[in-house]
Amino acid sequence: MDSIHGTPPAVSTSPTGFFATPGTELACLERLFEAAPDAIALLDADERVIRVNAEFLRLFEYAECEVVGRVLNDLVVGPEMREQAEVLTAQAREGVRFEVESMRRTRSGREVPVAIRGVPIEVDGVQVGVYGMYRDLSQAGGFRGGLAGAALRDPVTGLPNRALFLEHLTVALQGAPRRRRRVAVLVAAADQLQMLHDTQGAAAADELLREVAGRLNVAVRREDTLSVYGRGEFAVVLSDLPEPSDAMRLADRIHAGLRERVPVGGEAVFVSVSVGISVAPEDAAPDPEPLVRDAFVAMHRARYAGGGTSRVFDQAVERAALARLRLEAELREAVERGEITTVFQPIVRVPTGEIAGFEALARWNHPQRGLLAPLDFIPVAEKTGLIVGVGLEVLRQAALGAAEWLRVSGRAVAAHVNLSPVQLLDPGLVDAVMTTLAAAGVPASCMVFEVTESVVLHGPEAANAALGRLRDIGVQVQLDDFGTGYSGLTYLQQLPVGGIKLDRSFISRLGTAADGDGALVRGIISLAHGLGLHVVAEGVETSTQSRMAGSLGADYAQGFLFSRPIPLPEATGLLTGGGWGS
User: Fold this and answer.
1) Computed from CA positions of residues 269, 274, 280, 286, in that sequence, does the dihedral angle turn out positive or negative?
2) pTM score, whole prediction
3) Range of the domain at 450
4) What is the CATH number for 42?
C-alpha cells in the first residue's frame, strides 16, 4: 500500500533478490494497484485520468473506457461539491497532500460518502501527476458525518455554508506555505438585518440577504470562496493573496457595491455591512479557528464604530482588549479583597486656609501593579457597572473619615464623594447612603456628593429627581468640573445643587496673559453667588492663583498648593494641626 500512497516500498536491489527476474517488480506493483481495497485514480498534470483500478470502477459505476482521458472532477463531483473539489484540486496541483471526508457522486447519480486522499507525484523534483484515492465509507461505519453528512448550502442564499467554508479555509491554510501566498478571512455582517426583520418580518430579511449575497458575489475574486457563516454573516476565504493589503481592496469593493439601495418588498432599502479582516501569519498552523475568531473581533469593532466600515484585526489592539478584560475580572474581586482604598485632598476656606472638607479619591492597591490612580480603572468600572460597588466602598471610607474628623475637631468637616451617572441613577443609592452614614455615626450634612454636568446626558429629569432625593435626606450636592460641559449655566437653575467647583482649566490661566484680569472667572463666580451657590476653585497650584481666586470671590480652594491627596491618618493630622499654613 505504501507505493500506492506515493512512497515506493523498500526492496532489495540485489540480483539474487526477489525481483531479480525481469518484470517481477512491475508485475507485483500492477497486482497491488489492481487489488487495492481503495479506489485509485492516477491523474496527469492536467487532472485527466491516466488509469484507474478495479475498485474505482466498482465504486463509481464506470467502465474504464469512460474515464480515461476525462477530468476526474467531471466524473465524480456533483454540483454541490464542486467548489470544495476545486479547492482540493488546487492544493494537490501545488504539491500539497490532503485527507478529507466528503461526498462523491457515481455515474448513476448516487451520493457516496468517501475518505479522500490526494498525493502529488514528483519525478526528479518536478510534479507530474497526482494519485487520488477514495475509501468507501458507506458500509464501513467509519463515516464521521460533519461536512459531508450535513447540508453544504445555506438555504436562503444558496451559498456554501459554515461547514464548507471551514473546509475551504483549512485547505487554503495547508497549501499557503508552498505557494508562498497569504491567506485571509473577511467577514461581512449586514448592519440593518435585525431592524428589517423586526419591522417587516423574516421574509423581507431573507430577501435582503439574497440581495446582499448577490452584491458580494460580484465583488469577490473568482478564486475567493464566499460563504454564509451565520444569520446575516458572510465569510470569504481569500486563499491566494499576493499582499495582505489586497484584502482591504476587496472590502472597498464590497462597500462600493452596496452604495446603491437594494430592492426589498417593492421598496429600495439602504444596507451597509460591517467588515472585519484577519490575515494569517506566514507561519500559521492549518487551524481555521484563530483566523475566523480574529476576523469576527475586527468585524465587531467595525460595527461598534458605527457600521458600514472595515477594520483589520490588530494584535496590539487585541492585547489591549485582553488587558481590559483581565482588569475587569480583577476589579470584580478588588472590593471583596479590600483592595480599594481612599485618599483625601483638603478643601480650604479662602482666604483663611481653614480646612472645610476633604475630597475622597479612589485608589486601587493592586497586588501586582501597585497603587493605581482613578484613570487606570474608573473608566472600566463605569463601563461595566462595577462603579456601583467601588463607589459604595469609597463612600464607606469617606463616611468613616467624616466621623473621625467630627470626633477630633468637634465640628462638621465635609467628606466630598464623586458620583458617576451610573451611581446617581442606581435606584438603591439613597438607601445605601443612609445605611452607610448610620453605620459610621455621621450626620448627612457632613456628606457632599459631587456630580459632573454629564449627568444631563443620561436624562436631566431622572438626574434632577435623584439629586432631589439626596438633598431630602440632608446630603449636600455640588456640580463638579463646572464650565467644561453642556450649557452649564442652564443646569445651575435646573439641578438641586448648593455649589459649583470651577474647573481647573479656568484656574490655571489666572495670572497669565491668556486670562487678562480674570473677567471670565469673576463673571461665573458672580453669577453663582447670585443664585445662592458657593464656589470652589479647583486645581490651585500657586500662591498667585490662590490669591486671585480669593480676590475674584471664590469661597473655597483645592489643589496641590495646599496638599496632594493623602491617606486618612495624614488628613486627620492635617486637620488637627490647624489646617494649611498652620
Assistant:
1) negative
2) 0.55
3) 324-576
4) 3.30.450.20
